[in-house]
Write a structure and sequence with these properties.
By secondary structure, the protein is α+β, with helices and mostly antiparallel strands. The chain is built from two helices and eight strands. The N and C termini lie far apart (34 Å).
């Protein structure tokens, strides 16, 4: 898939227990993985609407699953920025069933994660296998 990370790199990251990396980069949108979650940062609604189905297709082809997908609108003025919003949650996460059909969709549910959770200080705690931001 064009503009998306190579599947071989994903396998390499998994082998090294790296759980936070960029999945896709486009001029108006990019997607990052943070453990079981994905964060879509976008400048336009059109970019978000185009990228979400691509994320589903990439996840299917790469045999990857996401428990939650967050969106973060990036306005031109920093003062207008808001925390990431939960766009959808996989209803079958506990059972390991997280295909795109299993996502609960609908209206955005409001601020869920403080901005500090998506910072350069995020790390993977390899002893528990969970992603834990340093400041959340």
């Amino acid at each position: 898939m064009r503009d998306w990370i190579d599947f071989g790199l994903v396998r390499d990251f998994a082998a090294e227990e790296t759980a936070a990396y960029r999945l896709s980069t486009k001029p108006d949108c990019w997607v990052e993985r943070y453990g079981p979650d994905a964060l879509v940062s976008y400048k336009t609604e059109a970019a978000l609407e185009q990228t979400l189905p691509e994320l589903d297709e990439w996840a299917l082809l790469a045999n990857q699953q996401f428990e939650r997908v967050f969106g973060r609108y990036l306005p031109k003025q920093n003062a207008e920025r808001n925390p990431p919003q939960l766009l959808r949650r996989c209803e079958g996460a506990a059972q390991g069933r997280c295909s795109s059909a299993a996502f609960a969709t609908g209206s955005i549910l409001g601020p869920v994660i403080p901005p500090a959770c998506f910072s350069i200080s995020a790390r993977t705690d390899n002893s528990s296998g969970e992603w834990r931001p340093d400041e959340c």
